[in-house]
Amino acid sequence: MRWRGIPVLTNSPPRGAQRGPGTNQTPTVLEPILDKAARKLGLDRVASRLVNAPSHDGKYGGKQEPITSSYLPEALKKGAEKFGWSRRQAISGRRDGSKATGLGVGVAYHTAGNSGFDGLVLIKPDGKLYIHNGPGNLGTYSFAATARAAAEALGMPWEQCEIVYGNSTRHLPWNSGQGGSNTSFTEARTNTVAARDARRKLQEIAAREFGGEADRYDVDRGSVFLASDPGKALTFGEAARRAIALGGKYSGHELPQDLNPMTVRSASALAGQGLMGVAKDTLERRGVVTSFTAGFVQVEVDLETGHVDIMDYLGVAECGTVIHPKNVGQQVMGGAVHGIGMARLEKHVYDPKFGIAAARGLLASKVPTYLDAPLTMSWDAVNEPDPYNPIGSKGIGEPPMGAGAAALICAISDALGGVYFNRAPVTLDMILNAAEGRPPSHQPLDVDV
What is the CATH number of domain 118-280? Predict the structure, then answer.
C-alpha cells in the first residue's frame, strides 16, 4: 500500500488522536494471530506470549535499538495469577443456552519517555520551592506527580512546594508536552536535574557561610546544614536571600550555555527572585523507553443476537515505579474502555476515492458508555523501576487501550471456537455470520459499511 497525505489548514484546529495512535491499533492485528497459532499448536495463550515477550535485553524497531527495560513477562505472570487464567480455562468456549463464554489476553506497547529537555526550580525567600513544570493537564495531574521528583531530590516537604504550570507566561522551561506517554519519564528527569542543581548551589552557599567543603553539607526538610554539626545551618529562605545577594549563577543571572532558548527566557524573567536551579537533562539514557500493558478479559457472546457482555477485565501495567497509584489505575481502566470502543464500536469508514470520512455520527461510530464497560474492572502494576529514570518511572497512557482492544477481540474469537475476523471493530453482523457458519459479508481490504 502506498499513500500520500496532504494536510489542509483551515480556521479550526488540527485534529489528532486522543490516545494510542498507531502502536496500539497494531495489537488488534497481531494478538489474534498469536491466538490462532497457539490454538493450532495446542499451546496456552499466555505461555505463547511469555515466549515472545521482550526482556531487558530486547530490541526495538528496524534498527534493533536497545530498550531501557521490560517487565512484560512479570506483567503477564502477575495478570494470569490474579485473573485466575489457568482456572478459568475450564469455562473457555462453554455454552449456556444461546450464550458462549470466551477468554482473551492481549498485550500492547508504546514508547514512554524522552530526554534532553530542561528543568527549572526556584527557592524564594519565603522558603518555598517553586517547581516550574512545562506539561499541561489533560486530566491525569501528572504535571503534579512528576513535580514530586524535585521535592524528593531536595528532601523538601510537599506542603512547602508550589507547582507553577499552565502557560508560557508563567516562565516555564522547555519540556515535552503531556502526551505520547512521555510525561512521567521525561519530567521526572528534568525536575530531578533542576533540583540537583539547586542542591549543589545550596551546599556552596552554606560552605561560604560556615566554611569547609560544599560536599560536607546536607540538604533536607527545608534547610542546608553541615552533616557533622547540624547546628550550622541555613533555612531555604535564608539561602535564597544569600543567593539574591551573590547574584550570578545562584540567582539566575548567569545560565548554563546548553539551555533551550525558551528556558533562557523563562529563567531570565525569574532572575533575582531567589536561588535558581536550572539545568538540561543530560542524565544517561541507553535505548528506547518502553511501556507495556497486559489485559485479561472474560466475555459472554449471545449467539442469537451477536451481543457481547464483558463480564470481567483486568489490566496489569508495566510502567516502572508507580508514582501515583490512583492515576495509574485510572489510566489502565480508562484506556481499556477506549480499547472497547476500538474493538467493538468505533467504525472508521472513509470514501476510498476521496478520503472523506463516512462514519461521522455517533450512530455509525459509537463511543463507549457505562453500559458498554465491563461489569467488573480491576488493575495492577509490576512496580519495578526503570534504571534510566531517577525515580524509576515510565509512562502508561497508551498501552492500556491496545491491550484492552486486543484482549476483547481475542475473547470474542475464543467464544466462537476460534473464528478470527482479521479486522476491527468486530460488529454484530460479523459475530452473527460466524455463529451461524456463514461467510463474512466483506472480503479482505474491503470497506465494511
Answer: 3.30.365.10
